TrEMBL record:
Domain spans labelled Aldehyde dehydrogenase: 3-448
GO MF, one example: aldehyde dehydrogenase [NAD(P)+] activity
Chain segments annotated as transmembrane: none
Pfam families, per the entry: Aldedh
This protein's name: NAD-dependent succinate-semialdehyde dehydrogenase
Source organism phylogeny: Bacteria, Pseudomonadati, Bacteroidota, Cytophagia, Cytophagales
Keywords for this protein: NADP, Oxidoreductase
Organism: Larkinella rosea
Length: 451
């Protein structure tokens, strides 16, 4: 079995990588298990020293890794380089804040001393997607490994080159053997890894179906799991919003990474009084997008990552139109290259409203008023990110508390940021990545009581 990476823009083969056999896989898990004892015994400052090398290495090699990322999954080179830089920023953040996050928490009780200690679990399996092939991995690996865990990466098959490149980074920065390893394995082999007693926990970013399967296996083994799954994120625009800024950011949020982001604004829910003006402004920004060769500096949107994804967007668009939506901007397709799509008159029950649309497809949904907008936003099986546009910040805070999502960004672009927790509710998963709470997801929160 080989994993083949294909350039989505040209459809040309990049490389093939052999899958791990059973013996090689067992050897890697054994290396991780052995590495954990020594790695977790190092001081936090010593582990931080390794990560300082990582941050510097990422910055020095951002062009090379950016080009690899663009070749394998199609985002523009500018986006790819920015992603590598974001990984380095994430490293900096955790190096600075880990001493506070991991410090013992003293608890006043009648005991002579009582405190909470935060201790690593062991080998953590990370099942990561292709859409942010570096950032998704680093936002797991940095806090987990810095806290003393070791990591096993099962990356998406179409970015196998990125998977091996990330392992190369840790090796180039002199990490001990076994602390971070890439596993080129088929999805069906994940169950074998997760049921191995030497693997202590799992984190997955991916589809609802994959999340349900992994959570089921982890549950059967009584192992901790964190799931970051799909989203159908609402962007609410109220009548008093700055419409030009809202429209510009809405299009940026929806179309960056060719629309392949869990927290992209997918449903533009707009108050009736300003729907026409907002829609006109959105259309202008969409028409300014240049879809094309992602290696070209003038291109603002590359292809989607795989042919099946392109076909899925095409199907969802056609179904939504058949269900009564109106096309405002056509998404002509050539292979994986899709022009941006904008649909109006979208309502609950339509594919474009109910399903996660993972590509350059935006839909306009009309709301009668603010309460109707919140109702429509919550009328989804997903609850990952959301956005709210209004000049009244008191109203914004009140409504933000009513929105069923893991995050609400007011008058701002939805994004993941190492300083704040990231994750969702409902079918968008459970657990959190990033910030202090994300760092503690794979730690033994141990109570110590001494009299």
């Amino acid at each position: 079995m080989n994993f083949t990476s294909v350039n989505p823009y040209t459809q040309q083969k990049i490389n093939s990588y052999p899958a791990l056999g059973a013996q090689a896989l067992d050897r890697k898990i054994r290396q991780a298990d052995r590495a954990f004892a020594d790695w977790s015994a190092l001081s936090l400052e010593n582990r931080s020293g390794f990560f300082r090398k990582v941050a510097a290495y990422l910055r020095s090699e951002k062009q090379r890794y950016g080009e690899l990322m663009t070749a394998e999954m199609g985002k523009t080179l500018k986006e790819s380089i920015a992603e590598v830089e974001k990984c380095a920023v994430g490293v900096d953040y955790y190096i600075e804040h880990a001493p506070t996050f991991l410090a013992d928490l003293m608890i006043p009780t009648e005991a002579k001393t009582s405190f909470v200690a935060y201790q690593p679990l062991g080998a953590v399996l990370a099942i990561m997607p292709w859409n942010f092939p570096f950032w998704q991995v680093f936002r797991f690996a940095v806090p987990s490994l810095l806290a003393g865990n070791v990591g096993l990466l099962k990356h998406a098959a179409n970015v196998s080159g990125c998977s091996l490149a990330i392992e190369e980074i840790f090796r180039a920065c002199d990490f001990p053997t076994g602390v971070f390893q890439s596993l080129l394995i088929e999805s069906k082999t994940v169950e074998t890894v997760l049921k191995d007693a030497r693997v202590k926990a799992v984190t997955l970013t991916g589809s609802e179906k994959a999340g349900a399967s992994v959570a089921s296996i982890a549950g059967s083994q009584i192992k901790k799991s964190v799931l970051e799954l799909g989203g159908s994120d609402a962007l609410i625009v109220l009548a008093d919003a700055d419409l030009e800024k809202a429209a510009k950011v809405a299009v940026q949020s929806r179309m960056q990474n060719a629309g392949q982001s869990c927290i992209a604004a997918k449903r533009f829910i707009v108050e009736k009084a300003v729907k026409t003006e907002f829609t006109d402004r959105v259309l202008q920004h969409i028409q300014a997008i240049k879809q094309g060769n992602p290696m070209d500096d003038t291109t603002t949107m590359g292809p989607v990552a795989r042919m099946d994804l392109a076909e899925a967007i095409e199907r969802q668009c056609a179904e939504t139109v058949r269900q009564g939506a109106r096309v405002l901007h056509s998404g002509n397709r050539d292979g994986c290259n899709i022009q941006p799509i904008l649909l109006d008159k979208v309502k609950p029950g339509m594919s474009g409203f109910d399903e996660e649309t993972f590509g350059p497809l935006a839909v306009i949904v009309e709301a009668k008023d603010e309460q109707d907008a919140v109702k429509l936003a919550n009328q989804s099986n997903y609850g990952l990110g959301s956005a709210l546009w209004t000049k009244d910040l008191d109203r914004a805070e009140r409504l933000a508390r009513q929105i069923q999502a893991g995050s609400v960004f007011v008058n701002s672009l939805m994004r993941s940021d190492p300083r704040v927790p990231f994750g969702g509710v409902k079918l968008s998963g459970f657990g959190r990545e990033l910030a202090e709470v994300g760092m503690k997801e794979f730690l033994n929160i141990k109570t110590v009581w001494m009299e």
